[in-house]
């Protein structure tokens, strides 16, 4: 019972107070089972970081009792946020050219060496958790020139174990393949490649595979999002309608989840139109709050307002950030 009660406390209270009560509580809190249980009890959300005109602001967007809550992020980030996993953040300090793995709940961070890229063409470092080995791994994708092609390479580092970077085999992949911004799910890292494939790294086995997008969608513009457990991609069918698909990480099979059709309710978005902007107005997927329940949308025009669409109740809500 004590275990279940402590697991519902905020991480900061556990770290600052509960862990000091007695040896029995200290030992219980430091077990893998407790950490896993506390992660499952924690509130999921979206970390939104703004770097504008030299000012840096961070917001945490979450759901509470069916309503969207926007709060200022309680940790001052040192630079750009590149990735997150289980509440840990990979942040790059632009001024010191340093890479940090940060636990913002207890305001602690550790520094790991940056991977020395052979060329300037690279993507950001990302982090994922391997449940089987109970280890975190930092991974970076980069490209090197091979004749007229740019060959994809992956480097990996197990946090607290490896003293140097290791390479993952990518020789079975086509030479002209590229990797874009990574998306992290449970035990996997995904890189959308061009418009036709998704590269997936199994963090435990360190094997990378290539999965084509559903047939007929190769030339469509797609937005990718992590649901936490799986990868989803969303397609704009029109200004106010979207199509949502999901890829299971283990089987790499695509399943159509739902359609979001807001054409009949487009008058609700009139206050977001920019009259001086001649570009088309589009709903842009931003992230999931409670997967298959609330989808956060931005718009293609400059605004501070975001949209929270509840797929189950079909309710449309609006919330505002501190910056465009």
UniProtKB/TrEMBL annotation:
Q: What region holds the F-box associated beta-propeller type domain?
A: 84-305
Q: Which InterPro entries match?
A: F-box-assoc_dom_typ1, F-box-assoc_interact_dom, F-box-like_dom_sf, SCF_F-box_component
Give any Pfam family that matches.
FBA_1
The protein here is known as F-box associated beta-propeller type 1 domain-containing protein
Q: Per the UniProt entry, what species is this protein from, by scientific name?
A: Erythranthe guttata
Lineage, uppermost ranks: Eukaryota, Viridiplantae, Streptophyta, Embryophyta, Tracheophyta
């Amino acid at each position: 019972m004590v275990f279940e009660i402590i697991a519902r406390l905020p991480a900061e209270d556990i770290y600052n107070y509960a862990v000091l009560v007695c040896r029995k509580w200290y030992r219980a809190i430091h077990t893998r089972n407790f950490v896993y249980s506390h992660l499952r009890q924690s509130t999921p959300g979206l970390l939104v970081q703004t770097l504008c005109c030299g000012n840096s602001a961070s917001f945490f967007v979450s759901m509470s009792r069916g309503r969207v809550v926007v709060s200022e992020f309680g940790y001052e980030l040192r630079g750009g946020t590149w990735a997150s996993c289980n509440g840990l953040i990979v942040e790059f300090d632009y001024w010191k050219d340093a890479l940090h793995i940060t636990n913002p709940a207890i305001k602690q961070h550790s520094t790991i060496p940056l991977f020395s890229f052979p060329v300037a063409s690279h993507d950001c470092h990302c982090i994922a958790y391997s449940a089987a080995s109970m280890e975190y791994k930092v991974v970076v994708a980069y490209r090197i020139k091979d004749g007229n092609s740019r060959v994809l390479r992956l480097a990996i580092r197990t946090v607290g174990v490896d003293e140097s970077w290791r390479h993952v085999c990518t020789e079975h992949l086509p030479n002209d393949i590229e990797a874009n911004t990574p998306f992290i799910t449970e035990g996997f890292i995904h890189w959308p490649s061009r418009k036709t494939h998704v590269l997936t790294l199994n963090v435990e086995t360190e094997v990378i595979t290539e999965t084509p997008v559903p047939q007929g969608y190769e030339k469509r513009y797609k937005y990718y999002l992590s649901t936490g457990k799986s990868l989803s991609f969303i397609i704009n069918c029109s200004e106010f309608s979207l199509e949502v698909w999901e890829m299971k990480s283990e089987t790499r099979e695509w399943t159509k989840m739902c359609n979001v059709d807001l054409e009949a309710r487009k008058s609700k978005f009139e206050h977001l139109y920019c009259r001086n902007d001649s570009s088309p107005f589009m709903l842009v997927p931003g992230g999931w709050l409670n997967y298959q329940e609330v989808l956060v949308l931005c718009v293609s025009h400059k605004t501070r307002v975001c949209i929270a669409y509840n797929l189950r109740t079909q309710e449309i809500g609006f919330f505002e950030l501190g910056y465009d």
